[in-house]
Amino acid sequence: MEELVKRLNALPRSYYDFVKGISSYCRKKESRLEKVMAFLDANTEATPSDVIEFVSMQDDFFENAAPYHETAV
What we know:
Distance between the termini: 42 Å
Largest sheet: none
Helix content: 55-70%
Radius of gyration: 14 Å
Number of helices: 4
C-alpha cells in the first residue's frame, strides 16, 4: 500500500482526496491494488483523472458505496 500511495502522490496534479480515495478503494481487496498498480505500470503518463476513470469503470466500484436514500423536501 505504501508503494501505491507514493506513486499516486507522484502523479502530476495529485491531491490529498484523490490519494485517500484510491488507496481506500484498493485497501478493501488485494485484487484492486494489483489492478491499479498494473494500470499505473502500463500508463506511465497517467493523471489523477485517468486513474479515477479506470477505477470507476471496475465491476466492483460500487460495491462499497453508501446506499442512496431519496428524501422528500
